[in-house]
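As described in the Methods, two query proteins were run sequentially through the folding procedure within a single session, without resetting any intermediate state between them. The first query and its resulting structure tokens are shown here.
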Amino acid sequence: MNVRDIFLSINARDFDSQTAWWTTFIGREPDRRPMPSCQEWDLAPSVLFQVLESPDNGPTDVSLRIDNLNAEIARLRKTGVDVPDPEKVDGFDTLRWSAFTDPEGNKVNLLEGT
């Protein structure tokens, strides 16, 4: 198997609202709108994040390792996203995380460190 891209998808009951929330969360407009029911962002080389219109599917989990957890939490709080203070993850040297949910109950984990 030769994997070229990884697609990480969020199922959205309210597609327009979820697209707006994730646009604010990511901090920029989608890179593509390949079809009316899909928005895509390039998050890293060969990693595509999608919001998909899918009213019949339940919540998902999204974990993103980022460079500066404190700066991202501050940025998100300024936009009105309720993000808890980061916590150290037991068993790891420097790994910290903040876990919360988007408006439809999808779990979002922001991680920093190792």
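Immediately afterward, the second query was submitted; its sequence and tokens are:
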Amino acid sequence: MSNAVDEHGRRLIHQRQIECCGYLRADGLWDIEGRLRDSKTHSVLLSEGRTVAAGEVYHGMLLRVTIDDEFNIREVAIDMPQVPTSECRGAAPAYERLVGLRMGPGFTRQCRELFGGTGGCVHLTELLPSIATTAFQTIPLARAQLAPRDAHDSGAFTRATGGLINTCHALRATGPIALAMKK
């Protein structure tokens, strides 16, 4: 990570990388993983006396949820190998409260209520909406096109994508894409 000035006269100070991946498991469930990495272009002295050098990751976290076809959360796994303080890892057990929840309307609000403030880790909680979006980008089309439950089910694609109607401007019910999906 460079500390140089870019073509716009700006100097990079902080970089956050978020990566989310959706996986179909052999048992038919889905693993949706979110990774967050924070680094700075300068050294940072942490509260416990350790120094994180420029370019090194000081927030490095993974949050994985295992969900079913209906977006019900079955399992949660958290790995926090790089955190600025040992206290950070104490928030991880709270995320077991995700088990049994369903990703859908109101999920982000629910997560803020469960893990806001001292109830969780702000970085893990920030990953949850991206994980939910990744689940919706992964499961419906994959279930319909790549791994249908019934190979003879010609309506699988329509059912899988029907839940996406009105989730964004492009997929509004009165728009050309939604109307074409109904045909």
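Strands lie at 14-24, 30-40, 44-45, 51-52, 57-67, 73-82. We note this only descriptively and draw no conclusion about the first query from it.
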